[in-house]
Amino acid sequence: MKSASSDAADFLLEDFLPYELSVAANRISRLFARRYSEAFGLSIAQWRVLAVVGRHQALSPGQVADATEMDKVKVSRAAASLVERGLLSQQTDPQDGRARVLRLTEAGRAIHSSIVPLARDLEAQIEARMAPQDWAALRPALRRLSMVVAELEGE
Amino acid sequence: MKSASSDAADFLLEDFLPYELSVAANRISRLFARRYSEAFGLSIAQWRVLAVVGRHQALSPGQVADATEMDKVKVSRAAASLVERGLLSQQTDPQDGRARVLRLTEAGRAIHSSIVPLARDLEAQIEARMAPQDWAALRPALRRLSMVVAELEGE
DNA sequence: GTCGATTAGTTTCAAATGAAATCAGCGTCA
DNA sequence: TGACGCTGATTTCATTTGAAACTAATCGAC
Known about the structure:
The structure is a homodimer of 155-residue chains.
Chain A (H helix, E strand, L loop, with lengths): L16 H24 L3 H12 L5 H8 L3 H13 L3 E6 L2 E9 L1 H23 L3 H23 L1
Antiparallel strand pairs in A: 1-2
Chain B binds a DNA duplex (30 and 30 nucleotides) through α4 and β2.
């Protein structure tokens, strides 16, 4: 005799945490991507680069990659397109000729101060529709989950 | 004077829910993808198709797409590769010549009963490393979040 | 100093993705 | 019954992705 939970035929994808997480993340990314694409013509990668460069005054692409959890190829391309659009400046680091220094331009600072409220607004819209205890529980649980998975990944 | 929360320069990407969710989901997907690729040579898309076809006896590609939240192109390709590998059978639906019926083959049933325990195991490993209240809170909060975002998407 | 190893960033190329076009079969209404 | 629209699924094609190769510059050992 088999116990219910060990029977493969009973496996429910929709109750499987990695699946639920992936679905939720994809939905929110689509929503987010659509809003930023419509309002500013920005991809999520570009948005992330603007957000972290706006927060710290000057960052290298490598630092941006660390801060955004994106790979260096993605950062390189996002930064190139933002430089192209005149939102970012990229100079060779005077201390290290291999490295680059990314900064917001004036136009970049302007767009940065427009995109951040939209992000806060989106988050607030979500929060407003959730039960306070769900909302409050989500962030620490998610953070813990991220840590746990990072550990498992590294093994 | 500006309040702290409305100053764009103070925006912290790492405290932004959509970002945190995306990071957590990507990490778990990478871990999951690596394990299934190593152990069975399966992609996540293929894994999902096997999981839902294994649960329901016979499904059309469209039903699989609904059940897995994947688009029909992805399902079509995943199913084709599984048929290729002899894990799935695909026949024309006798009731409707446009539709197809996907079923597990014998080999498919065998692999299905191997992959499900690995999924449960992975989930259990994560659960074991989380505080019980975080774990317990995560699922309902995530489900609610998914619903909320789906609503916002549809507007 | 200079040579090999390493690091920062970019580019290349093959694989994955998904929107739109296509194909095939069903239903219906005149 | 046959023409039109609709639906299920696949294919095409342009775009995105990321691993690996490449370029350029620093670092460290001798």
